[in-house]
Specification:
The structure is a single chain. The chain has about 280 residues and is of the alpha+beta class. It has 2 domains: about 5-145, Frizzled cysteine-rich domain (Orthogonal Bundle), CATH 1.10.2000; about 165-280, no CATH class. The protein has helices at about 20, 60-70, 70-75, 80-90, 105-120, 175-180, 220-230, 230-235, 270-280; strands at about 5, 30-35, 50, 140-145, 165-170, 185-190, 200-210, 245-255, 255-265. The strands form 3 sheets. Strands 5-9-8-6-7 form a 5-stranded mixed sheet, covered by helices on one side. Strands 1-4 form a two-stranded antiparallel ribbon. It has a two-stranded antiparallel sheet with strand order 2-3. This is FZ domain-containing protein. Keywords: Developmental protein, Disulfide bond. GO terms for molecular function: Wnt-protein binding.
């Protein structure tokens, strides 16, 4: 992703600091290496940041603590500029002057990512209110392209929370064959974060049963996004955090995956075994 400088989140509960107000520009700053704990700000084109940062954080411990609360949102891939936007605030590049993100970048990121944030019960924080950032004609960070809309290929929809289907059980092998035509097989597991809090990184392995309505074109990343955004649904599917396998049945509309049914994959199920044997001869309608 290429960005230009145009010329003249915190997700924490109760966090009200404002980028434009929190930092005293007269305060002495220093250049420090971006710590390994700030994974979202690695490989962004620079390796050193200014401290205090544009969020007013004066210690590296505070920077790490506040920035890691955004890791989950970054993993949802809700907007391609989210990492750049957040890192320009939490880990600003070491230049002679501070470069804020442009208001238009903030608005684009907010419009795409606020729905995903709301899925976890959080609103877009006041500390990142976009009217606090400079307009594009001022000195600020902006993408070289002026198309600020975050679009999946062929899509104008922003991924949002979906109603969680109940996990169903198969009754007959014919039913298994019917859903196979619109199914992906997902092995779901969770891993605690380095902070050992109640956040979990959702990892999945995706196997395509067939090229039905869920074509493998970018479907794996779309499923990963669905899992991360619809985290409450995943809690219902996998409350014990043990690795489990599911069949997700659905279709893609306007570039967004819609999961309509969920089945648990149980290898010892006789009807499932019979269906997999017949699958090679089955033709989807």
């Amino acid at each position: 992703m290429v960005f230009s400088v145009t010329s003249a989140v915190s997700e924490n509960k109760g966090d009200t600091e404002a980028p434009g107000d929190a930092l005293d520009i007269g305060l002495s700053t220093k250049c420090v290496v971006i710590p390994k704990e700030m994974g979202m700000c690695h490989n962004i084109g620079y390796s050193e940041m200014r401290l205090p940062n544009l969020m007013g954080h004066t210690s590296m411990a505070e920077v790490i603590l506040k920035s890691t609360t955004w890791q989950h949102l970054v993993h949802t891939d809700c907007h391609p500029h989210l990492r750049t936007f957040l890192c320009s605030l939490f880990a600003p590049i070491c230049l002679d002057t501070f470069i804020h993100p442009c208001r238009s970048m903030c608005a684009a990121v907010r419009d795409s990512c606020a729905p995903a944030l709301l899925c976890r019960g959080h609103r877009w924080p006041a500390s990142l209110a976009c009217d606090r950032f400079p307009a594009d004609e001022d000195m600020c960070l902006a993408p070289l392209t002026r198309d600020y809309k975050h679009l999946h290929k062929g899509s104008s929809k922003v991924p949002t929370c979906q109603t969680c289907p109940a996990v169903e059980e198969f009754f007959t092998h014919k039913r298994v064959l019917e859903v196979f035509c619109d199914t992906v097989k997902v092995k779901l597991s969770k891993k605690k974060t380095a902070l050992e809090d109640q956040e979990y990184n959702i990892e999945c392995q995706v196997e395509f049963i067939t090229q039905g309505s869920l074509l493998p074109y970018e479907t794996q990343s779309m499923i990963q996004q669905w899992l991360l955004i619809n985290e409450k649904c995943i809690e219902r599917m996998n409350p014990t955090h043990r690795p489990m396998v599911y069949l997700l049945v659905g279709n893609i509309e306007e570039g967004i995956i819609l999961v309509k049914q969920i089945y648990r994959w149980q290898r010892k199920d006789s009807q499932l075994t019979l269906a997999t044997q017949k699958w090679r001869y089955h033709k989807c309608l």
